[in-house]
């Protein structure tokens, strides 16, 4: 019996296609981020996360895929050209890995930023808390050393007075 005689079905969970799309988008020049909306952005601002599927929604059929994206593009870049790159790279990567045909790519530009603005937006609350904790720790250590030194000096002074 050959493998052609064996019946089978191959399906993909949405998250598999979302990951393929998310990783493919990392290669698009001028695309600063894929935005998952308010709650996803809130989550990303609280805790560092590298989820490539935020802002990527797909509908997967047996032979076709439709993709919806919310993106942030770099200020000064040609947005229609970026969208053309997105469509090409998404279709190419999905086809290469799954043999599914991408029939629709809907891109919603939710923001436009400079690279500096994007970098500032990527600093999360977790980063700020970690920085504050580090500063507090350094301050406490410095004060502890000062107290130890003062106690040591007082002990030495008392011994010489007696």
TrEMBL record:
Region of interest (Disordered), ranges: 132-162
InterPro entries in UniProt: Asp23
Bias kind Polar residues: ranges: 132-144, 151-162
Domain of life of the source: Bacteria
Transmembrane segments: none
Residues of the signal peptide: none
Pfam families: Asp23 (PF03780)
Family, per entry: Belongs to the asp23 family.
PANTHER family reported for this sequence: ALKALINE SHOCK PROTEIN 23, HYPOTHETICAL CYTOSOLIC PROTEIN-RELATED
Identification of the protein by name: Stress response regulator gls24 homolog
């Amino acid at each position: 019996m050959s493998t052609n005689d064996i019946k089978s079905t191959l399906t993909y969970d949405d998250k598999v296609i979302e990951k393929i799309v998310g990783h493919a988008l990392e290669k698009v020049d001028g695309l600063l981020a894929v935005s998952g909306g308010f709650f996803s952005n809130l989550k990303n601002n609280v805790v560092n996360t590298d989820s490539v599927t935020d802002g990527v929604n797909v509908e997967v059929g047996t032979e076709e895929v439709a993709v919806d994206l919310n993106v942030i593009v770099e200020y000064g870049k040609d947005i229609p050209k970026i969208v053309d790159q997105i469509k090409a790279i998404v279709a190419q990567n999905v086809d290469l890995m799954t043999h599914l045909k991408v029939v629709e790519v809907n891109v919603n530009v939710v923001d436009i930023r400079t690279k500096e603005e994007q970098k500032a937006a990527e600093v999360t609350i977790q980063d700020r808390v970690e920085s504050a904790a580090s500063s507090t720790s350094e301050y406490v250590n410095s004060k502890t050393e000062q107290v130890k030194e003062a106690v040591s000096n007082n002990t030495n002074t008392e011994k010489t007075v007696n």
